[in-house]
Structure formats: structure tokens, C-alpha cells
């Protein structure tokens, strides 16, 4: 992927007196009183008045240090008037673009209306960069320059940089419940990493593929051959692939389940594995001690249940410790981010990715339409 122009490349002449359309990702969770509960993270849930951006104005104003004005829409005459009235250095927040179905359809007319409000375009919404929408891809056809914002740039530097040119040894920790949702990532990373650690519910498909009994643990029966081929691929590439040697098992899927630790080869009938065990934590930690770059995507167990969070928490603590020693630690979006935040270690990591789907697709080596649409950086 070609390096993209970013805000940092623009000169005063590019910006003075210009109107800038900045696409940002403001998905943050709100409580019942519309207070922001966590301003680093959120999940979009379709289009309803309760997804209005109005409650975000006070916090945005506070963060930017100026009074942010808010429009009731993102296109139309009313918005045009407000845009015309913005003083230099002023900020106008447009209403949620997802209120228009044309946004996700990448409708050219809608994109043109958005673009008509400004002179140039900055995309800082990494979390939606894997989708070609009107406000992420469509507008770039009508606005020049179109550049990456600072957050977008940081995401690309870390995620693309780590994968294409890592300091070695380079390890990836991949977890999560299903192999199927992580096939792309595992296959892509097997081409790049020196060490691959697997955890989470997906390990039972690998165990079963190796002929082990997995009790009532989660298994994707139709992925057993795939698991075998991934293990063979790791071997042929010389990648050290570590599966947990012991697991914490439970008699039911519940926070108050009875639990015990057993060897991976000794899961009794009727029991299910819900976390990696202490031996695995030790082996994984020792492997990670040898590394210079680590990407983590997906928890080691059902960390939402305190009883089965030990593996995930231990990995978070290990990465925080390694960061302090100069190792580049990248938390690749999704549940791993929640786990690191839950452990109170978010600020210790080199980089925490803000995009779930976008980080996953980037790690899979897929091009992101919202990034491809931006101007290429000119060779210095």
C-alpha cells in the first residue's frame, strides 16, 4: 500500500482560510443520561435519534478548547449557511452521516453534497476505513487534497509498519472464540511472524484436529482440516506456533461455574475449556520475552467472567511490561482493547487500534477503501 499524504504534510498555504471536511469516528457509548461513558471506544448501532451527536458537543468543545457549533443535519441549505458562518479556526459538527442510507451505499450525489461544504478533506476515521462509504471514499473524488488525519496516520504507521517491516523477533497473539473469523489473520501473519501464540475458544478446533478430546468445548467441525493445514504451514515456514498446554475448564458456560485446570490432552467429557492455564501463561510469557514486536488480537479466554480472565489479564500485564522495555506492542482492535482497558493497562501499550473490523482487515493484508482513496504522498 502506497504511503498516503497526511495532515502533517500540509503547509499553511494549503490550509489558511480553507474549509476542511474532517471525517471522524465518534462512536462512543452513552449512558441513559446521554453522558459519555468511555471516549475511546464505541459501537455503531444503526440510525436512530439516540445516535445524534448532540450529546458529544460539550466534550468535544472541552477537548478542542473552543466552542464547537452543531448542525441538525449534514447536508442542505441550513448546513450551508452554518458552514459559511464558521470563523477561521472555528469548528462545526455535522449530524451523523449514517442517518442517510446514501452514506453506506456510497451514493455519488450524497458524497457531492457533503464535499460541496469544504475545500479539502481529512479522513481521521480509521474505524470505518474498511468500508467504501460516501463520507470515507465518495467525497475524495470531489475534494483535493484528501489526506489522512493524525489518528489515521498513527494506525497506518503501526499496523502497516509492524506487519511489513517489524523489528524481530516478531510475535502475534491471536485469540477469540472462532477459527473461522481469524483464518485470514492467521494465514496472513504466518507469512510474517517468527512466533504465533494461539488462545481463546479457537484452540479446541486445533486440539480436536490433533486427535485430542475436547469435552463440550467450542469446536468448528468444518474447520478441522483447515486447522491441520495451518499447523503444517507454520511448520513449513519455520514459525514457532504455540498452542496452550493446559486449560481452565468449567462444567457450564457461566461466571459461577465450577472450574479446574487440566492438561490440554485431559479435558473430561461434559466440561468445556474457558481460559488458558498457568503453564501456558508461563510458556507464552517466556516466548514473548524474546520478542521486539508483538501484535495482539483476541482474548485468551472468556475474560468477561472474572474466573476465566486470568490468561487474558496475564498477557495484558506481560505486554505492558515489555512495552516498558522498548518492545513495540500493538493491540489490534476489538475485544483485546476492552481487555487491556479492563486491566487498566491501555496507556502502557505502544499502540491501541481504534478499529475492530478495520484493524482485522489490515492485518489480513486487505486494502482499505477509505485509505486507498486518499492522496499518495509525493516522494520527498
TrEMBL record:
Kindly report, in one word, the top-level EC class recorded for this enzyme. transferase
Q: Which Pfam families match?
A: PGK (PF00162)
Its pathway, per UniProt, is:
Carbohydrate biosynthesis; Calvin cycle
Task: Give any GO molecular function from the UniProt entry.
Answer: ATP binding
For this protein, the record's Gene3D superfamilies field holds:
Phosphoglycerate kinase, N-terminal domain
Q: Which organism is it from?
A: Aquilegia coerulea
Q: Which family does it belong to?
A: Belongs to the phosphoglycerate kinase family.
The subunit structure is: Monomer.
Q: Which domain of life is it from?
A: Eukaryota
The Gene Ontology biological process annotation of the record reads: gluconeogenesis; glycolytic process
The name this protein carries in UniProt is: Phosphoglycerate kinase
Keywords carried by this UniProt record: ATP-binding, Kinase, Magnesium, Nucleotide-binding, Transferase
Listed under catalytic activity are: (2R)-3-phosphoglycerate + ATP = (2R)-3-phospho-glyceroyl phosphate + ADP
The UniProt record gives the binding positions of ATP as 182, 273, 304, 333-336
Span of the signal peptide: none
The cross-references to PANTHER family, in alphabetical order and at most eight, read: PHOSPHOGLYCERATE KINASE, PHOSPHOGLYCERATE KINASE 1, CHLOROPLASTIC-RELATED
Task: Report the EC code(s) recorded for this entry.
Answer: 2.7.2.3
Q: Give an example GO cellular component term for this record.
A: cytosol
